[in-house]
Amino acid sequence: MTISLFSGQGSQISGMGRDIFEAFPDTAKLYDSASEILGRDMKAVCFESTDEELSKTINAQPAIMLTSLVGINAAIGKGYKFNGVAGHSLGEYAALVISGMVSVEDGFRLIKARSEAMEEATRENKGAMAAVMKIAPEKIEEICSQAKNYVAPVNYNSPQQTVIAGTPEGIAEVSEKFAELKARVITLNVAGAFHSELMKSAAEKFYETAKTITFNAPDVKYYSNVTGGELTDFSDMAGLLAKHIVSPVRFTSELYAMQKDGAERFVEFGAGKTLTGLVKKTLKDVTAISITDIESLEGADIYE
Fold first, then answer.
1. Looking at the domain covering 128-187, what would its CATH class be?
2. Active site residue 195
3. HEC string of 235-299?
4. Among the options 195, 196, 224, 290, which is catalytic?
5. Given the residues 33, 89, 115, 290, the one annotated as active site
6. What is the pLDDT of residue 125?
7. What's the pLDDT score for residue 304?
8. Predicted local confidence at residue 188, as pLDDT
9. What CATH superfamily is the domain 2-123+197-299?
10. Which residue ranges of the chain lie beneath pLDDT 50?
11. Which of 5, 9, 63, 161 has its CA 20 to 30 A from that of 291?
């Protein structure tokens, strides 16, 4: 069983997707659709933005989603087939489109609403995120729960990596505790405390758009960050996606669930290789491949 994975925020890099776009002119329609709905030239955003401009939430989210869709559409054109999809945070929106749950246009409408709402929330509530390495998730939960300032685990990425989010004071407070335990703490280059309570206003605002979107049952297995497993109830996708903004990303649980279901090959589409690394750190006896550019696309052993 093959699973398509889609990169999350933080994987953006200037120029991403350009060589695949140039080699597969049919992908131009994806850029055109994104540009029309987002109201700006998304080729320019992806190909010409500075790293600073691209790191802004309103640019990073649609640009990464677009790059993921370009990569997998080019692969499908070459004969790539898959049985399930999963994304990390923002990556769930590329998964929504590719699974057939929403149209390309509605996918970009959703990500426009999400990125704008989250950008606004980061201005209202100053937040930060950090990756904590080499310490058990349960210990991280315990330390965060005892902090005086708000901080919480928000991304369960692998048994050895959990991302925390909260106020800058909260992050600093628990980072001292983690340092005492010889854990490695890396501050993340993000604009806010994503997947935490500090995003509550974003979730509420996003929901107003999400509830206007038509969601279909997926054509392949769809795995959810919120549940940590295969999603089978699609009756309130708007509510689930709003909850997703303030809920932890249970990616480790998803990976275990996918392997239990028979997944043996994971193919990541997007600008980075983060998810490929997490698969390799979490699961044994599986293949993990990242498609980030034309070289990796052409050379990948994924085609029938």
1. alpha beta
2. yes
3. CCHHHHHHHHHHCCECHHHHHHHHHHCCCCEEEEECCCCHHHHHHHHHCCCCEEEEECCHHHHHH
4. 195
5. 89
6. 87
7. 80
8. 85
9. Malonyl-Coenzyme A Acyl Carrier Protein, domain 2 (3.40.366.10)
10. none
11. 161
